[in-house]
Design goal:
There is one protein chain. This protein is about 75% helix and about 0% strand. By secondary structure, the protein is mainly α. Helix 2 runs antiparallel to helix 3 and helix 4 runs antiparallel to helix 5. Pfam families: DUF5995 (PF19458).
Length: about 240
């Protein structure tokens, strides 16, 4: 990844947050550092011309990261993030990572997509096909990070014996929920766009917040979080409007 540009800037801001974490918030490091590395990977994929519209992906990725930084800094903390941030610090590192992923992907990602796709864009099928394909390509970048991120957690010594035994299953589950979440995020983005046109966006966003918070709350129950996701599914789906 180049050392200049919007993504490099947001990576630097994430690194600053890592460096400035107070001891009582040290558990936030697990998700934050994971997100920092995956953001760098997306930046490298942009440099490697893996997207049809790299300029659009860059703007989208930065907008997505901004929503997380606002939550982390306390500027705008929706209920999914409050639950993730207030989770017991003693939870396994993997649990903290997955809580953050759920809050960020389920609640923030549709908003980030809508921020960079106008209502007029939605009327252009060819353009929307390109946007959807680039959205899918992000999954490929993230899937390539699964084994590496597992290694990063192992290096911290933060994985339990059970985590280590279940590593192959965990990696399979990770790839599955990446595919599943992509489909649900695109559905929710479309639902929110329709609400934006109809003047009911805030109502539908509030519904998404409730659904996303419920998923985070479910993941806070005792047990192996990733395996539960593999069974119950990842992501949330906005129902048809009333």
């Amino acid at each position: 990844m180049t050392d200049r540009g919007p993504i490099a800037d947001v990576v630097a801001r994430m690194r600053q947050r890592v460096d400035e974490l107070p001891p009582e918030l040290a558990h936030r490091r697990f998700f934050l550092e994971t997100y920092l590395r995956t953001t760098k990977a997306v930046g490298q994929a942009i440099d490697d011309a893996r997207f049809e519209d790299p300029a659009w992906v860059e703007v989208w990725d930065v907008r997505f990261a901004e929503l997380y930084l606002q939550a982390h800094d306390g500027t705008s903390v929706a209920r999914p993030w409050r639950l993730a941030f207030e989770a017991p610090a003693k939870l396994p590192a993997l649990a903290h990572v997955l809580l953050g992923i759920n809050a960020h992907v389920n609640y923030d990602l549709p908003q980030a997509l809508l921020a960079v796709i106008s209502d007029d864009d939605f009327l252009d099928p060819q353009l929307m096909d390109r946007r959807r394909r680039d959205h899918e390509r992000i999954d490929g970048v993230l899937a390539e990070r699964v084994a590496a991120e597992d290694g990063e957690l192992a290096a911290t010594g933060a994985r339990s014996l059970v985590d280590r035994v279940l590593t192959p299953l965990n990696r399979l589950a990770s790839r599955r929920f990446l595919r599943e979440s992509r489909q649900k995020v695109w559905h929710n983005t479309t639902e929110l766009q329709q609400a934006r046109v109809q003047g009911t966006y805030e109502k539908r966003l509030a519904e998404l917040e409730v659904l996303s918070a419920a998923k985070v709350a479910d993941l806070l129950r005792p047990g192996q979080v990733l395996l539960r996701l593999a069974v119950t599914g990842f992501g949330v789906t906005l129902p048809p409007p009333d």
